[in-house]
Structures are given as C-alpha cells and as structure tokens.
Amino acid sequence: MSLQGFYTTKGLALAAKLAAGTGLTITRVTAGSGETAESAAALAQERQTLTVGEAAVSGQSAVLPTTLAEAGASAAYTLTELGVYARDPQEGEILYQVFRLSEGRAITAGGGSAYRFYLKQTVGAAGVTVTCSPAGLLTGEDLQPLRTALARKPDAVQGNITLHVAKTGNDTTGDGSESKPYLTIQKALDSLPKLLLARADIVIHGGTYEEAVLVYGFSGPNSLTIGGAENETVKIKTVDIRAVNLAEAVQLRNVELVGTSEDGYNFSVRTGDVEFVVLENVSCTNATASSHWGAFRFTYTLFARLRGCTISNKAVALDVAAAVVYMDSTVTGTGNTVGIRCGSGWGNAGGYVQKGGANIAGEEQKGYGGQIW
Q: At residue 9, what are phi and psi to the nearest 5 degrees?
C-alpha cells in the first residue's frame, strides 16, 4: 500500500506563501472513503480524525507521523485517502493536501488495528507547527493515551515487549510479567498491539498447551517471536500464522507441535498471507493419516526459513503453495509418505522449495509449476 499526495487549489496557494516565508500550521488530519477533487474545500466522505505526532523537520522538508486507530471509527468504512488541513493567514483553515492510497483498506468500527502513515510536507524558513483542533487529538502529548491503549502497557511502544506464559499463570490476574505470567499463549498474543513499533517476544515456559494458537493481523517495523523458554520443554497443539506484515520475521522457536487442526485439513502449523516467517527447532513427529494438507503448510508466504526442524510420521510432511521455503541440513524427518509437496490445485498455485541439504524422508511431489531444488 502506497500514498500519492497532491495539493488542493487553496493548498497550492498556501504552498506559495510558505515558500515566501510563512510558517506551516497543521490543524488536523482526517481519513475519508471518497475521492476528493483538487478544488474541494473538504475531504470527500470524511470518516474520522487521526492522531498526529510531532513533526520531524529537516531543511525544507517535514515528516508528519499520523496514526489511524480503528477504535476511533464510529462506523465501518473503506479507507481511500487522507486529508491534511492547515491554517492559511488569509483564508483560515483549509484543506491543504490529499494523500490517496494505492488500494483501499477496510476499517472496522471499534476494531483493534492501527495504521501508521508518514506524510511528507514542504515547509518554509518558519518551519511547521502542529496545533490541537477541537475535533481531535493532534499533539504528541495527546497521542500518549493511544500509545497506552494500543500497547496495553505504558512503555511497550517505547521499548521492546516481553510477555511470559506459564502453566501456573492466570489470564485474568496476570499481566505477562515473569512473576505474573499469562496462562495461555493466545492471551499473550491478544494483549499485544496489532501495530508493533517495538520487538515483541512471547516466552513460553514448560508444559503442554492444548491450544489452537492464532497469530493474526500484526504489522509494523519490528519482529514477533513465540518460543519455548531456554532448557524447558514446550508442547503446543497447533499454530496458525495469518495476515502478518512485519518488516522483520515472525518466529516460532523451540517448541513441539503435538496436534492437528480440527477443520478437516489436519495441519500442525500453517502460514498464509505472511511476509517473512522463521521456524527454528520446531518438531512435529506424531502420526497423522490425512493427506489433505501437510503438517507444515505454507501458503501465500513471501519467504519462510526452516532450521533445526523435524517432521516425521506424516502422510504429507511439508506442503508449499504460492510460497518460497528455504531449509538447510538441520531439517530432517522420517516415516513420511510424502516428504515435500510443492504446488497445489488450491488456487492453481506453484511454489519454490530450496532443500539446502534437508533430509525429509518421503516422496517428493511437484505440480502447478512448483519447484523443489
């Protein structure tokens, strides 16, 4: 998703005044679901006001960090553009710029997701000022409640997040600290902000967790790691990783998968619509008869890396469709009917598997352009 910005007619006139030395004063930023014309005085189909942080100024450019929180939407809509309002010395408040999204984004009323936009402005010698309008929160100070609400803990956005899960924990009275851990992995995941501005680590302490864990909807410039604590044995039923768009990897480490999904597909770990995923020291050796989907199922995943993993006793061990998977010689498996299947009739999708010395016993199957090397 990208943004394409343009000045409105009055905005262009204000830009000329900025070049002559007038200071730029931003009054508010709003989100809309329409298509605004250059001559418009207001954003088309305006839906909600965004929060705006302190502008970062360098020379004649300023970057305005803005955050759209679904929690602030009173009704669902499709986000198509953002409008920046500014104060003109003669005209008063005007619609200054419009930034149009390359593709619409569905916004859920009262939802848990948040989206961060960095809007670039050209400023004159007098710089840029962000003021607070009666319609919304626009200063760095006013942004703090949103940070707190997103992170569920005041310092989480500012620093790395570590949450603990233990069989002695409690999802009601726990806070994810080592002394007061959560009881379930899902509770720890649901306690994280969907917008990860800092690295997040979920440390799982020894025990068997009969959970169908869902990792869903995270985005941001950092990583998310879910892993067993050092020198402790952690067993999880299944893990499903979907719709995760992080600049760094979502990682699953040091766990044993002991179950299969109850939807008829019988996967133990699945990814879908994921940018980058790493599985390290993940084992799955219980017998599974169904070959509907593989035990490790990767779909619509830009890049997956497996290290130190074991997949054994499966009808289909590794199943890849519309995904790229890299392995190395530390990935093994025995007793499988099909070791690697690359390409699927589901969506007529191929795929790419680089074995890199991996030794997963079983037949190798390729279809729909799938490649195994």
A: -60, -45
To which residue do tokens 């020198």 refer?
231
pLDDT (tens place) for every residue of the chain, 373 residues total: 567 778 889 988 888 887 777 778 888 999 999 999 999 999 999 999 988 877 666 665 667 788 888 888 889 999 999 999 989 999 999 999 998 888 899 999 888 777 877 776 665 555 445 443 333 333 344 444 444 444 444 333 446 899 999 999 999 999 999 999 999 999 999 999 888 878 999 999 999 999 999 999 888 878 999 999 999 999 999 999 998 888 889 999 999 999 999 877 889 999 988 889 999 999 999 887 665 788 999 998 988 999 999 999 999 999 999 899 999 999 999 999 999 999 986 667 889 999 999 999 999 999 988 999 9
Who's near 77: CB < 8 A, 6+ residues apart? 33, 45, 47, 107
User: What is the spatial distance between Cα 69 and Cα 73, in angstroms, rounded to a whole number?
Assistant: 7
The two structure tokens encoding residue 211: 């959970």
pTM, whole model, 2 decimals?
0.61
| CA-closest candidate to residue 160, choices 220, 240, 230, 245 | 220
Q: For the chain, first and last CA: distance in Å?
A: 33
d(CA 251, CA 314): 23
Burial label, 269 (beta-carbon count in 10 A; 0-12, 13-18, 19+): buried
Tell me the C-alpha distance between 75 and 109, whole Å. 5
Six token digits for residue 120 = 């670039």
Strands 250-257 vs 92-107: parallel, antiparallel or unpaired: unpaired
Supply 342's token pair.
């690359």
